[in-house]
Amino acid sequence: MLFDMIKLILKEMVVLTESIIKFLIIVLFLLILIYPSALCWNYSINTWLDFAEKEKEISMTACYILAVVPGLGQFGIPLAAATFIIKMFL
Known about the structure:
The structure is a single chain. By secondary structure, the chain is mainly α. It has a domain at 34-90. Helices cover 88% and strands 0% of the residues. The chain is built from three helices and no strands. It has helices at 2-51, 60-68, 70-89. Helix 1 (2-51) packs across helix 2. The longest helix is centred in the N-terminal third of the chain and has 50 residues, at 2-51. The protein is rod-shaped, with a radius of gyration of 22 Å. The model has no long low-confidence stretch (mean pLDDT 85).
């Protein structure tokens, strides 16, 4: 009886550990995918703040939040490319 309870508890712990590992892998994968877009947002916003002679106050955390938003995340990369091209002519 006691052995069966211990066996059941260990089985549940293994399932819980596997679930936690899977969740952490998914979160890590999403952060890796979001990182380039967050860098692009950081570059674009700080470039335009520098052009406007304002302080660069945007943080990487704010850029991560922008990159997670479904429409804005994908828009960060073309925005950075357009910022780079426009900045060459200014």
